[in-house]
Structure formats: C-alpha cells, structure tokens
Design goal:
The complex is a heterodimer of chains A (171) and B (343). Chain A has 171 residues and is an all-alpha fold. Chain A is built from 8 helices and no strands. Chain A starts with a helix and ends with a helix. In chain B, helix 1 crosses helix 3. By secondary structure, chain B is α+β, with helices and mostly antiparallel strands. Chain B is globular. In chain B, strands 1, 2, 3, 4, 5, 6, 7, 8, 9, 10, 11, 12 and 13 form a 13-stranded mixed beta sheet that branches. In chain B, strands 15-18-17 form a 3-stranded mixed beta sheet. Chain B has 10 helices and 18 strands. At the A-B interface, helix 1, helix 2, helix 3, helix 5 and helix 6 of A face helix 1, helix 2, helix 3, helix 4 and helix 10 of B.
Chain lengths: 171, 343
C-alpha cells in the first residue's frame, strides 16, 4: 500500500515538473514574481477548510502550484492580446510559451549541477546518484552501501542543501 | 543563531522533501507537514524550490555513471559522515552579497543624482533631511558614496562637514553602508545612543525608549549620546562586531553586545517581516508599521501567543489568512482595522 502511494506521488511529481519549472524560471529571473506566486499558492492552501485531513499534502501542494503557474501563463497571454482560448492553435502556443525562455536557463543550471555533484563527498554523491538517477528506494540504497536508512536520509539532506547553496550563488 | 531565517526554513524544506520521498507519511507526520507548509509563504516557496532542484538533479543524470560505479566510489571512502570541503553552514559570503544587492541596484539608479549631491556638499554644512512616510522605504547615496537605506516612518538629518559626517535619526530605522574615512568619522546619534563607525555596514533602530544597533559587517563603537551623557555620570563605550547587537535605554547599555540573527533583524531590507516563536503582539506591531489598516488584538490572552513565519511586509492578506488558520483565533475586518479575538 505505501508503495502505491509513493508511485502516485512520483507520477504527480513527474506530471507537474514542467509547470513547476516554468514557475521557478520566474524565481531565477524575477525573484519578486516567484515570491508573489508562492504567496498565492500559500493563500490557496490556507483557504482549504480541512487541509490537516488531506491525505497527501505534498501532492496537493504540487497540484495547486502547477495550476496557478498555468493560470498565470493564461493571464499574461491575455494581457498581451485578446485571443480565443478555445482555439487549439492558441492552446498549443500556450503550452510552449515559457518553455523556450526557461529551456536555456534550465540547461545552464543542469550543467552547473553536474559540477556541484562532483564536489560532494563520494558517499554523499553515491546516495544522491542512486536516489535521483537510478530511482532506488532508501532501503535499497542503505543495503547496497552498508549504512542505515537514517544515514541515507542524512546524506540526501546534506547533498540537497549543498546543491541549493551552490546554485543560489549563481542566481 | 548565525543562520538567517531563510536558511533554517530551507533546511527544514530539505528534510521534509526527503521524508516525503521515503513513503507516504503517517497521519501524524502528514498533519505536521501541513502545519509546516501553512507557517508562511516562504515555507511554501522553499519547498517548491527544493522540489525544483530535485527535478534538475534528475535531469543532470550522467548516462555513463552506473549504480555500480557510484557504489564502488563510495566504498573507497571511510564511513564517517564528512562535511565536504568548503561546506559551511554560516555561509556569510553569499548572504553578504545578497544583502548588498539592493545597495548595488540603488547605486546604479542613484548615480545620476550624485552630481546634485556633490553641488550640495560644496554648500555644506546644510542639514539635509531624509523622510519616509508610513509604509514607504527609500535608498539614498550620500556625497561620500555611503549608502543610506530608510525603513517605514523614518526621519533622518545628515550634516557633512570637512572633518566629520553627522547623522541624526529623529525617528525610525535605517541601514548604513559606510565608506570608511579615518579623517572624517561617521557618527550616528539615535535617542540616547551614539554610534561611531569603524568601516562597516550597520543598522540603527530608534524606538520610543529603546535604541537598537545591529552590525551586519565590520565594527562600530557605541557610546551614550551627548544629551544622555549629561544626565548619567558613568560613561561607557561598547565595541559591537559583525553579527552582534546592543540595546540602549536612557543612555544605559541594557543588553549586549551579543550575537543575534542578523537575517531576521534586517529582514526589512527585503521588505520582509520575519519572526520565530515571537509573541503575537510584537508581530502585530511590526505589521502595523507598514499597513494602512492596523491589527488590533482584542483578546489579551492572545497577545502572548508564540508564532513563527516570514511574510512580505505589505502582504497583509497572507498574514490574515495565517491568523485565521490558527486554532481558536477569529479575525474580523472592520473599518477601524483588523480585529483579532479568541473564538
């Protein structure tokens, strides 16, 4: 059962990653925009009556954020010219609108991330690589490296934190 | 407490993200995660940012590196969880750069105005007034290239002479990025305190009774102001260094120098209000410094309620939503302001 739920989250995560990338392309480009969007996501989270009883808050957060990113895109498009949103050509253009700009930025960041990964300690890098490149579970990683799952999580937090700080310097 | 609030929240975001990837959280942890997300918009932003980073990590996959390669490399390392070279939680370098960014932007914007200031300096010492109204913030470049940044409701008088630079804070809060000049000391008076710069970036907050001095980078010397010295026999001189703060009441050093969270103290530079386990009454006072509609806490018992979060100073809507999400708290919008009561 937990396996099913985990798979569901992974699927949601994959579905929304495009929208989230557009969302955070703004963060890198125009920090104030990303903060404003985060505030909007936050407000929507709080407007749900029983958020504490939501089974999977993370999946819910991703849904709210990506819906908002899409809405935002429609709004920006509307500001430019009046168009028929039901027109399939317009729909298609909307889908690729921000991708072009964010793509260069994305490729640049990915190249830099490879460098940062090389700076992690071998064990920390192995844990990050096995999780994010090979999709291994924490338990599998733990048994392959002969460490506890607790340590696997520690290495992941350490690795993510270092990547985040190093990447923040290039923003 | 050397980390800024944002660093702490980012770290928590990483921990929650890693926990969420392990397996579905149980009901108790899931509720705790919801509460964490609801703490403030910054919590949401940092969580989405770490999600994004993990997505980029997946995209950075090197097809030539197999799982076996990674495991093999890890075997050659001893089992200690070693911090990689250059790993530093205090990370003062990027933060300092981030704090200087608004100043740098201001320099570009204000460069055109410097000629005007230069003319003004020739005619010195004329008192130059800098004022911000309720909710306003402004940045200025002074004739010596020092930067002056004013927070809401602040009034400052600057007098530049050949042998000294005098700044008086009549009311409010200001940040100084001072260009050091040993022949021309930079002195700031605020209430009963006087601050003498020794080459630095520091903030002075003059409240009704209390004057607070925070050093972001460098060192300052703080003494009672001349007015206060007249009424108090004992003279003192406190050296305040990077990351430290002092408080002065009626010419007396009441606290410090002690290390504090500079990120939280200077959150206003980013137009943010940051609070960590602070009483609701103090947080409301902070918001009221910016907002046209005041928050009134009607139930006395709620004043001491400890809250944490980071909000944009002008984002009252999010803060009201946050208050409404707290157990046993009701919020009512009236023409006179925002009334907060216990349910």
């Amino acid at each position: 059962m937990p396996e099913d739920k985990r798979a569901l989250v992974e699927r949601l995560f994959a579905q929304h990653s495009g929208a989230l990338r557009v969302f955070f392309h703004r963060r890198a480009g125009l920090r104030a925009d990303a903060s404003a969007l985060s505030q909007e996501v936050y407000l929507r989270l709080l407007h749900v009556n029983h958020i504490d009883s939501i089974k999977n808050p993370e999946a819910y957060l991703f849904t709210v954020a990506s819906n908002l990113a899409k809405e935002q895109k429609v709004l920006e498009w509307r500001r430019g010219i009046a168009v028929d949103l039901n027109d399939p050509t317009v729909q298609e253009q909307l889908g690729s609108l921000d991708e072009t700009g964010s793509k260069i930025d994305h490729e640049h960041r990915v190249a830099r991330l490879r460098e940062v990964l090389g700076q992690l300690s071998p064990k920390c890098r192995a844990v990050v690589v096995l999780q994010y490149w090979h999709g291994m579970s924490y338990e599998d990683i733990a048994s392959r490296l002969g460490i506890s799952t607790h340590m696997v999580k520690k290495y992941l937090v350490q690795g993510l934190g270092l990547c985040r700080r190093r990447m923040a310097r290039m923003e | 407490m050397n980390e800024s609030v944002r660093m702490i929240i980012a770290r928590q975001a990483e921990e929650w993200f890693v926990a969420n990837r392990e397996e579905a959280l149980d009901a108790r942890k899931s509720a705790a995660f919801s509460r964490w997300l609801k703490s403030s918009p910054l919590h949401v932003e940092e969580y989405l940012a770490i999600t994004q980073l993990a997505g980029e990590l997946q995209a950075a996959r090197d097809p030539n590196m197999t799982a076996e390669d990674a495991i093999e490399q890890a075997r050659h390392e001893n089992s200690v969880l070693a911090a990689p070279a250059g790993f530093s939680m205090s990370g003062s370098e990027p933060r300092r750069r981030a704090q200087w960014f608004p100043f740098a932007a201001a320099i570009v914007i204000l460069a055109g105005l410097s000629i005007t200031y230069w003319k003004w300096e020739i005619r010195a010492p004329i008192a130059q007034h800098y004022v911000t109204t309720h909710g306003q913030q402004s940045t200025y470049r002074l004739p010596d290239n020092s930067i002056l940044r004013l927070n809401t409701d602040t009034e400052i008088v600057v007098r530049y002479r050949v042998n000294e630079r005098l700044v008086e804070i009549t009311r409010g809060q200001a940040m100084f990025g001072v260009v050091h000049d040993s022949k021309r000391p930079f002195r700031v008076t605020a209430g009963s305190a006087e601050v003498r710069d020794l080459g630095t970036e520091f903030e002075v907050y003059r409240q009704t009774d209390v004057t607070r001095v925070t050093v972001v980078d460098g060192q300052v010397s703080v003494t009672p102001s001349k007015d206060a010295a007249g009424t108090h026999a004992s003279a003192w001189n406190a050296h305040v260094s990077t990351g430290e703060q002092v408080q002065i009441v009626a010419g007396v050093l009441t606290s410090g120098p002690e290390p504090i969270d500079v990120g939280r103290s200077t959150a206003w530079l980013r137009r943010q209000i940051a609070f960590e386990q602070q009483p609701l009454s103090e947080v409301a006072t902070e918001f009221n410094r910016y907002s046209p509609t005041p928050i009134n806490i009607k139930t006395a018992a709620l004043r001491g309620l400890k809250v944490s979060g980071v909000f944009a100073a002008d984002d009252m809507e999010s803060f009201i939503a946050f208050l409404r999400s707290l157990d046993g708290v009701s919020v009512e919008l009236t023409p006179a302001g925002i009334d907060v009561r216990a349910l």
